[in-house]
What does this fold into?
Amino acid sequence: QVQLQQSGPGLVKPSQTLSLTCAISGDSVSSNNAAWNWIRQSPSRGLEWLGRTYYRSKWYNDYTVSVRGRITINPDTSKNQFSLQLNSVTPEDTAVYYCAREGVGDYYFGLWGRGTLITVSS
Amino acid sequence: QSVLTQPPSVSGAPGQRVTISCTGSSSNTGAGYDVHWYQQLPGTAPKLLIYANTNRPSGVPDRFSGSKSGTSASLAISGLQAEDEADYYCQSYDSSLSGWVFGGGTKLTVL
It folds into this structure.
């Protein structure tokens, strides 16, 4: 049974970097059959897909246009987890952040982490 | 404003049937990309309810069904139960944005 466990600080100051980690159990971040995503949810923006990382003989990343240039999603094979970094945050980045698993060719998110509320405030 | 359009709310009495619509455009649902549905109970993460327009993951009751035609998709819930009260979201892929997009969500109230 695949599980995703999120961790990270809940409060980030404006202009700083938001960092979250999603630990995977029951699957591998290097699996050729999955992609590992970050999605956020806020009252103003609703559900917003941020990006993903996946391995198909080499590592790939895809990011949504709205945060491209500020976002990095990295796999950590030694710890079987993946991370989200979002730079130069503003109060608009306040949201619940979810990690989620996407099966190869699925185009949907079959498994979600529990979510982490990130508040951007000084 | 979400790329996929859903009604903000729907309601129905226990035992009744309700439908939730999801309308996209030529770069997402109208381009043939599948629509997927999620149920979000209060205080929890979204949970996959319907995938690839009509398919239910294991464990999802057959009271939930999905359909798609052209640029629109629908989620139908029959035999409404109190525990169905939740937010429901549709999701698809958008070729113009090169990414996954969601509807704004529909709050289902069981009267």
